[in-house]
Amino acid sequence: MNIHSPKPGAARYRAIWISDFHLGTKRAQADLLLDFLRVTESETLYLVGDIVDNWALKKTWQWDQLHNDVIQKLLRKARKGTRVIYIPGNHDENFRDFAGSQFGRMAVRLTDIHISATGKRYLVMHGDEFDGVVKYAKWLAYLGDNAYEVAISSNIVLNKVRRLLGRPYWSLSAYLKNRVKRAVEFLSNFENAMVREAKRREAHGVICGHVHTPEMRTIDGIDYFNDGDWVESCSALVEHFDGRFELLDWRAANPISVGEPETIHAHTSGNGRLAPAG
User: Is 127 exposed, middle or buried (0-12, 13-18, 19+ CB in 10 A)?
Assistant: First the structure.
């Protein structure tokens, strides 16, 4: 494959998956994302939905130069040879109208099948298709999104205080999400639904975003990989040239999960680390 040479010191991967930027909102970590894009290279770059937050932009305009820079960097990667696959999510669902279109080396698709270096088939999709709130009651999804904004704002204030006290970053919204997940039935079924869809499509695994919770594990023999988000986690999923998958925590600048995923069974209670839809 003809791709551009990485900059000196840049990390190079066979494939990278990133999602849930939510550009157009104050909570988008565009500075960290731009830093990540500048120092990583890949043959294929998957944008797994919610790149631009059209829900938020309908209410208020929060678009600054850094958001422009992220978009320009993505387009530049495509121009210089990176194969870019854009899979829109629920917050940028209007771009789904362009599914099947090809713009140079950037393709827009509803889903994709990624073939790993070891020959495994991975279904790639945003994940909101299996989110009952988004699919069947959009008004409730909007209510949840507004509540999430409040949690994020509180989180910002809390962590300013923690920094003054010399304490590490702590995510209030992640803390809250891990406690409300059992009260919201659709969340408890998200991972299992994704795994069932991967099995239906005869894939070895599924790679998604949407729930803002980076994860690598195996459920009933199917790999479940979630690349996280660029609002809180600032995480990315990468495939090395030998076929190994790894989750990168860009905020901490070191891996948060490496190599073989944890193995569990789909019906084991209390192990689903899910979060409300992003």
Answer: buried
Pick the CATH number of 12-264 from 3.20.130.10, 3.60.21.10, 2.30.39.10, 1.10.3210.10: 3.60.21.10
Domain boundaries, the chain: 12-264
pLDDT for 52 beyond 60? yes
Largest CA distance in the chain: 51
Note whether 268 and 258 are within 8 A (CB): no
Residues comprising the chain, all counted: 278
Q: Which of 35, 23, 9, 1 is nearest to 236 (CA)?
A: 35
pTM of this structure = 0.77
What pLDDT is stored for residue 158 in this prediction?
73
* CB environment 209-240: b (16+ within 10 A), e (fewer): bbbbbbbbbbbeebbbbbbbbbbbbbbbbbbb
**Dihedral (Cα; 178, 89, 69, 24), 10-degree rounding:** -70
Instruction: Using alpha carbons, select from 249, 242, 245 the residue that is nearest to residue 258.
Output: 245
Task: Please report where in the chains the tokens 């894009």 appear, as a residue.
Answer: 37
3-state secondary structure of 181: helix
pLDDT digits (tens, 9 = 90+) for 96-155: 999 999 998 899 999 999 999 999 999 999 998 876 554 554 555 565 666 656 665 666
Identify which of 194, 210, 190 has the alpha carbon closest to the alpha carbon of residue 49.
210
